[in-house]
Specification:
By secondary structure, the protein is mostly beta strands. It has no helices and 4 strands. The strands form 2 sheets. It has a two-stranded antiparallel ribbon with strand order 1-4.
Length: about 70
């Protein structure tokens, strides 16, 4: 069961890797180019923690909604 990845993010725009090919495995570095997979945008209005979905089942991607427990 894939647990969410809880990360501290600065305010601003971030792109979550969905292809699994990025160097850090968390944020997009362009490694998806040439695939049909696109990163998911995370916009933070203020710095804070966010739980990012790692199972792909969330109805609120890229945020975790607890679907990994089902």
């Amino acid at each position: 069961m894939a647990q969410p990845k809880v990360v501290q993010l600065d305010a601003g725009e971030h792109w979550l890797c969905m292809c699994g090919k990025s160097a850090d495995g968390k944020f997009c570095d362009g490694s998806h180019q040439g695939t049909n997979i696109t990163p998911k945008q995370v916009v933070m209005n203020a710095p804070g923690q966010v739980a990012l979905c790692q199972c792909g089942k969330s109805g609120n991607l890229p945020h975790c909604d607890g679907s990994h427990q089902n």
